Amino acid sequence: EVQLVESGGGLVQPGGSLRLSCVASGFTFSNYRMSWVRQAPGKGLEWVAHMKQDGSEKYYVDSVKGRFTISRDNAENSLYLQMNSLRAEDTGIYYCARDPNIRYWGQGTLVTVSS
Amino acid sequence: DVVMTQSPLSLPVTLGQPASISCRSSHSLVYSDGNTYLNWFQQRPGQSPRRLIYMISNRDSGVPDRFSGSGSDTDFTLKISRVEAEDVGDYYCMQATHWPYTFGQGTKLEIK
Asked: Core-most of A31, B78, B81, B108, by most CB within 10 Å?
């Protein structure tokens, strides 16, 4: 059974940083591209970042370019999202997801950016 | 970026009746390999999203056959043949042909 378990969310002040983690199981992690998708409270879904299996390709939505960095450790079956210079509009649930086409989703981790 | 426009945004449906959601893209979603990466997701209240349909019309395993997808190029539709109580929630289309991936605004399905 495919499982994606996110962690690392919490309350952070504007301008602060957080690092999200996602541990994968139930499939060969190194064979799959991975994404992060977020959802602001009461709002729709927004794709945030994507990474190829070997890390050679990374893509970001414009609103996080230069502030967020996606990375992975295939030996640890883990995906990460380093979030710097956080803003109030980054508040929401962050989901780890397996590609292609966002087939599987984790349960999400809540990030709250507020003073 | 490719803009995905769903309609309606709110969909009240009587149990046992059909439902239909439209999704239109601002650009063709046909990729250079000939495939069209248009997907549909369901998000029940308080749950993570779940993919229902991939590449226009392919149902994911475990998805009831009352769900079907159709369309081409820039115009797509999700249909539910007979709505059941468990279908309540938000439905999103998403394109994965162009970077960045983009979602529609969501359609909230409720029981009348």
From this structure: B78
Closest CA to A67 of A14, A5, A1, A7: A14
Q: Minimal Cα–Cα distance from B44 to chain A, Å?
A: 13
Res. A50 pLDDT band, cuts 50 70 90: very high
Distance, in Å, from the CA atom of B71 to the CA atom of A13, rounded to the nearest integer, reads 45
Give the pairing type, strands B58-59 and B107-111.
unpaired
CB B32 within 8 A of CB B5: no
**Closest Cα in chain B, distance from residue A46 (Å):** 7
Residue B10 to residue B4: CA distance in whole angstroms: 16
Terminal CA-CA length for chain B? 36
Do residues A80 and A94 lie in contact, with contact meaning Cβ atoms separated by under 8 Å?
A: no
Could you give phi then psi for residue A9, rounded to 5 degrees? -70, 170
Percent residues over pLDDT 70 in chain A: 100
Q: Which of B2, B78, B4 is nearest to B42 (CA)?
A: B78
Cβ of B31 under 8 Å from any chain A Cβ? no
The two tokens of residue A63 are 């609103």
Which candidate in B48, B58, B59, B105 is best for mutational testing of the A interface (most A CBs within 10 A)? B48
Q: Which residue, chain included where needed, has tokens 């490719």?
A: B2
pLDDT value at residue A100: 87
Q: Chain B: nearest CA to A13, how far in angstroms?
A: 26
